[in-house]
Amino acid sequence: MNLNDTPKLVDVLLVGYGPVSEILAVMLARRGHSVAVFERWSERYPLPRAVCIDHEIYRVLAAIGMRDQLPGVTHAAPPYRWFNAEWKELLAIDWSKESISGGTEVNFVHQPTMEAMFDRQARKYAEIDINLGCEVLSVSQTSDYAELTARDVASGEQRTVRGRYLIGADGANSLVRQAIGAVQEDRGFEADWLVIDVLPHEGVTLDVPAAAQYCNPARPTTIVPAGVSEGRYYRRWEFMRMPHETREELEQEATAWKLLSPWVTPEQGQMVRHKLYTFRSLIADRWRNGRLLIAGDAAHVMPPFMGQGMCAGLRDAWNLSWKLDLILKGEADDALLDTYQQERRPHASDVVDLSMYLGKVICIPDAAAAARRDQSFFDGSVTPPPAFPSLTQGMLHKDEQGRPLGAAGLLSPHGTIQRDGRSGRYDDLTGLGFTLVLRSAAVLDAMTPASCVQLAQMGVRTVYLAEDASAPGAFIDIDAKFGPYMDQHELAAMLVRPDFYLYGSAASAQQIAPLVTALAADYRQYALKLALTR
Ligand SMILES: O=C(O)/C=C/c1cccc(O)c1
Hints:
Blueprint: E1 8-15, H1 19-29, E2 35-39, E3 52-54, H2 55-66, H3 70-73, E4 74-76, E5 80-84, E6 89-93, E7 106-109, H4 111-122, E8 128-132, E9 134-141, E10 146-152, E11 158-168, H5 175-179, E12 184-200, E13 212-215, E14 221-229, E15 232-240, H6 247-251, H7 253-260, E16 269-284, E17 288-289, E18 292-294, E19 300-301, H8 309-328, H9 338-362, H10 367-378, E20 416-419, E21 422-425, H11 426-430, E22 435-438, H12 441-446, H13 449-457, E23 461-465, E24 474-477, H14 482-488, E25 493-496, E26 502-506, H15 512-525
Parallel strand pairs: 1-2, 1-11, 2-8, 5-13, 11-18, 22-23, 23-24
Antiparallel strand pairs: 3-7, 4-7, 5-6, 9-10, 10-11, 12-15, 12-16, 13-14, 14-15, 16-19, 17-18, 20-21, 20-24, 22-25, 25-26
Ligand L7QG3D3K binds at residues 50-52, 222, 224, 238, 304-305, 307, 309-310.
């Protein structure tokens, strides 16, 4: 394009090309929407940052076309254990246990390898126009479009592009966040840590804890896997900067090897990176202004101890994608996008708090304070960590005070099923729209004809658990993911949204009619015409 062309109009402009942007581009393109991405750097960021994806994100990535690639770039997490200076366990988070989505709670990834996979996926779509080496200089909007001006870093040439929406996934120093007038709320966590990744030499097995926080006040230390690439398993260490140390001292390669020496030596492995990061806790007060939105680190930054930094950003993308899809197709009102911040901000905020809780456990460089912490864990007087959040606001079945009713806002389960003579993952066999999942055929039989008609008009499919999957809508819960979940939450029915969260639930067949009526009211409020089919 040269300078004098009329600015091109695409569906969505994306600023930044990290994992959130890559995945959002794929999510939109696979629904046929045009996307233009602008990224200042012409090379991918070479250093791994995140190392974790949780079960929900694994399910999302599988659902958007990467199911077959994921096993090659992830590995199951071991239990995540927290120790004091004497290696007595303070806290254990079982990341290895079976999750409601199937597979372990957490998987470890080598971020550059996973991002290369995301990039390959994005480049399969003609709908995605990737502009690397193009720095976004300014962002603006009118009532009809969003606009950005970008400068080709190599040639200096500038161009202006328009999109119906513009998403800033442009990192912690987001230009788009400034453009929407958002202010970062600082939750007050700040600590410098040296982050080191090591690739053990071939054939070397290191004698190190599988995944641990070593809460030694003399040197708080993280020891975790760092993913797999081409069959080689990486490891990560993180060392907190002590009050008497300078950042420069800590960042020396010699210092890094000295800190690693109890665990690994140059004879055993290659140090592939070492970099000092300041872990902080920030959340933007505003995630949307008209056609401009932010996602990922632009909207929230958290300490890494819960492994949720990238997951939170990918959740933003997933939440945005089904709403943007409907709006861009003319099947929902733009007001649906208001539910993005309503849903994602409180969730991300709780994850920031949870990450800070963990950060405050380990970031104690004072021996007396650490002894008090240890004692509080041993005598049980410690405040337990907050629970992992669900959705609490937005497009959910709520009471008159705006509180979620029943199981509304929980993440739904996922598993292997049999349906229509085929066995496979539920998402692959059932599709991704609004779906009413019933506990049994008896619940289906007890539904009112009016509810069945309303559901059909809204494009909501109905499926039910059965012993025999020959009837339409019947499926066999092969690995017992759905039945036990529904029994645990006492659900006769759960109404699942396109992003796998429960819009609402019914404890009995009789409660399905008000649930369906509530969904119909939300359909009217957001002018939803038809639910997604795939
Ligand atoms: O994936 C991330 O962003 C961070 C992962 C992680 C996991 C465990 C301990 C840490 O300090 C970081």
